[in-house]
Write a structure and sequence with these properties.
The chain is of the alpha+beta class. The protein contains four helices and ten strands. 23% of the residues are buried.
């Protein structure tokens, strides 16, 4: 059996059909409350070369409280479309954690500020929020431009992006 995994390292970027979604400004993150109720919130995000997705939120927000109770989450990133033939997007599953101040926070800040330069002026306002990272373990690309219901799926395992059997 052929190994179709894509090792993730500084030398090898994610496939362009995934990284193109880094140009979109907003993702919807879905969490679950302690009593099982679902919640979804739109947040600005910026991703790194491993497709870790960084975002700011108020620690008092519903999704932030949900994340503290259970870090598992789902997310979706998609452009606005007018016709079904243009529908495309990423569906993701993974975990979310709050970033502690330090090197990782500063590196995430640089990535976020490069995508959203206006945040440099808002750093004092941002200080009242928390910085989070969504770390995907599963990704599904939907792209109707390649045929109705076209899907590609990957798992992140041991530093590699591994296509699943469900990729069509």
């Amino acid at each position: 059996m052929r190994d179709n995994s894509i090792p993730l390292s500084d030398d090898l970027a994610l496939p362009s059909e995934i990284t193109e979604f880094n140009e979109i400004t907003t993702m919807t993150i879905a969490t679950t409350g302690e009593s099982g109720e679902p919640h979804a919130a739109a947040v600005y995000f910026a991703g790194d070369w491993r497709f870790n997705l960084f975002f700011f939120s108020s620690p008092e927000s519903t999704h932030a409280r949900d994340i503290l109770a259970d870090g598992r989450a789902a997310a979706t990133i998609y452009p606005e479309c007018r016709g079904w033939q243009d529908i495309r997007g990423l569906q993701l599953r993974g975990t979310v954690r709050q970033l502690a101040h330090g090197l990782e926070w500063e590196q995430a800040w640089e990535i976020f500020a490069a995508k959203f330069p206006f945040v440099a002026e808002l750093r004092p306002v941002v200080a009242g929020n928390e910085f989070y990272v969504f770390e995907p373990v599963w990704l599904r690309l939907i792209d109707n431009r390649l045929g109705f219901g076209h899907k590609q799926e990957w798992r992140l395992e041991g530093g590699s992006l591994v296509p699943t059997a469900r990729s069509v």
